[in-house]
Amino acid sequence: MGPGRYLLATAALLFGAIAVPAQAATIQITMTDLVFAPAEVSAKVGDTIEWINKDVFAHTATARNGDFDVNIAPKKTGTSVLKKAGTVGYYCRFHPNMKGVLTIAP
Amino acid sequence: MFVRLSAAIAALSLLTGGALAQGAKPTDPQIAHIAYTAGVIDIAAAKQAIEKAGNKDVKSFAEDMVRDHEAVNKQALDLVKKLKVTPEDNDTSKTLSKQATEKLAELAKLKGADYDKAYVANEVAYHKAVNGALETQLIPSASNAELKSLLQTGLKIFQGHQQHAEQVAAKLK
User: Among A5, B14, B50, B132, which is most exposed with the fewest C-beta within 10 angstroms?
Assistant: First the structure.
């Protein structure tokens, strides 16, 4: 294997590493004992929120602006892909005392 | 419309202002029984609502109540089994059950929108009373840490139900 090949591999790794932060991320938000954690999250358009319900109760993650409304059964996981920038408050429709905020950058 | 204060709520207020407050702190087996009974009462009311309610928000609220209260009561049963505690019937539980039966009979006579409003109004008041009893009497009196923690989770769930019921009630007006 010549040095050219090695260089190419290094370049690929480098560019790969640079490309990663620009790719969509998956952010986990758990629901434990009727609390969304973390309650405040910063994300970007294209990111996926993974809602992890650790309770024995069904919950929802419902955006106040209507952008998402996910039902998450007990001990299950649901996802939302963020499509629009902005500050979005959300809550659980079954237990409106459960609240959180997503700050979504473009 | 004049909504009569549910008799069950009056029974719960006994906890805070009545017999039990006069020095006799409820024991863990009694607390477990009261909490379980309070759940059973709400499940029975919800099952009646699933049959009778006309409004779809009211019906789905009732379905939420059955699901959540059954889940809480299952946790409670698992816990008392684990702790080898036998829930102990007591005057508060008895009064709660008796008066809830009367409330069910009263609601059974109503129809349509009158029923929907009366059921939801009672849910708001009932959860408020249960939450008051949990906060001021049952949680502070519980000696076992796991029982206390389950009651605290119950309080958060029921506070959620109270807010949810208030939202449904506001939409019915």
Answer: A5
Tally of domains in chain B: 1
Q: Number of Cβ pairs closer than 8 Å across A and B?
A: 39
Query: Which among B67, B68, B163 is the nearest to A96, CB-wise?
Result: B163
pTM of this structure? 0.83
CB B131 within 8 A of CB B155: yes
Kindly determine whether residue B160 and residue A97, on different chains, have CB atoms separated by under 8 Å: yes
pLDDT digits (tens, 9 = 90+) for A32-84: 999 999 999 999 999 999 999 999 999 999 999 999 999 999 999 999 999 99
CA-nearest residue to B73 within chain A is A56
Q: Are A97 and B167 an interchain contact pair (Cβ–Cβ within 8 Å)?
A: no
B40: in domain: yes
Pick B75's closest partner by Cβ from A56, A92, A94: A56
Say which residue the tokens 């996981």 belong to. Answer: A77
**Which of A56, A58, A94 is facing B164, going by the closest CB pair?**
A94
Which of A77, A76, A103, A105 lies closest to A90 in space, CA to CA?
A103
Element (H, E) at A38: none
Cβ B135 vs Cβ B156: under 8 Å: no
Give the tokens for residue A68: 């998402």
Query: The domain containing residue B119 runs over which residues?
Result: 7-17+27-172
pLDDT tens digits, one per residue of B12-65: 665 554 444 445 789 999 999 999 999 999 999 999 999 999 999 999 999 999
What's the CATH code of the domain at B158?
1.20.1260.10
